[in-house]
Hints:
The chain is mainly α.
Amino acid sequence: xxxxxxxxxxxxxxxxxxxxxxxxxxxxxxxxxxxxxxxxxxxxxxxxxxxxxxxxxxxxxxxxxxxxxxxxxxxxxxxxxxxxxxxxxxxxxxxxxxxxxxxxxx
Length: 106
């Protein structure tokens, strides 16, 4: 599935830059890097929530008879759906990585 329609930077501003700098940085996690990850994930959740709220509001406006085009409603609904799917896939990968760490022998 492609997410090029909404753009990752729209979901999480600066995500690509952060991921690129993290790939080259092979140090042990510090409290600062954990805080940065927490902030990045929190921003992702907030961005997805905003897209869901925007989609809901434009759907409500369309149903109440406001001058909203049907294609705008469909675009917002698809953006919100793709963003939610992205968030769920990221969550699934994080849970899988955590489970792999738990299964590693000491």
